[in-house]
Design brief:
Layout: H1 4-19, H2 24-53, H3 57-65, H4 68-101, H5 107-114, H6 116-119, H7 122-133, H8 140-145, H9 154-165, H10 167-180, H11 183-190, H12 195-206, H13 208-224, H14 227-233, H15 243-252, H16 256-283, H17 285-291
Helix pairs in contact: 2-16, 3-16, 4-9, 4-10, 4-13, 7-9, 7-14, 9-13, 9-14, 10-13, 10-17, 11-12, 13-16, 15-16, 16-17
Amino acid sequence: MADPEIKSYEPHHESQSAAVTESRPARLALMAVAFAFLGIFLLLPLIIVFNEAFAKGIGAYTEALGNPDTRSAIRLTLLVAAISVPLNIVFGISAAWAIAKFEFKGKAFLTTLIDLPFSVSPVISGLVYVLLFGAQGLLGTWLKAHGIVILFAVPGIVLATIFVTFPFVARELIPLMQEQGNGDEEAALSLGANGWQTFWYVTLPNVKWGLLYGVLLCNARAMGEFGAVSVVSGHIRGLTNTMPLHVEILYNEYNAVGAFAVASLLAGLALVTLVLKTLLEMRYGAEIAATRGH
């Protein structure tokens, strides 16, 4: 009788071999196109950003970053990320837990809503907040009467950032939790653990690497968001400009060194995100693949 493991393996091996039918020149051509595309649209812009940032020397670079408005933009960017990312972690874990572990009416609709920011332009989301919280908006009169300021202030920037980033954590955790099923949680409950103990000691450790992956992407998007924040910030220099908005202002003022100096910080963030993402995928490839639905 044939070994069942060998029987299950052989078709997979044959299908992999059958899938690679291109000739060597064809494979080389495809690789050349891929590398050329990445070189032109990814590596070349990064090189230009850092070259322009240091075009007038390290002194001009540090002076540009030491500008009070620049420091304010950096502080605001970090503040917005520090608020929006933890809130997205709470939402992402809650939504993923509900969708993956329970059956309820409206589950498909909730999943669709989580994907909404991926299909709606960030500018549109910013305009929605203007219609809600602006002086002529739905809640504008009530907010003004109670002295509550949302638009053109930190709260509006945080709300806009949360909107464009909240799918990242949830979308990484939902497939992972669905793949794992409920077996571990049911075992913990049968041994006497309560709901919170099951979550802290079973569910959360099982998804920690997928959670870190989602947080990484969420943080990168939060710091680099432009469209939605641009609409709700009011572009008040030194007060409501995040780093991406400050780059635009400096560039429009023909301050190339200042603009590219701040842009280099954002580019550095992107590179750090890429390195951390790669390390996570290398060490925890199987679990990360599950979070991506593979």
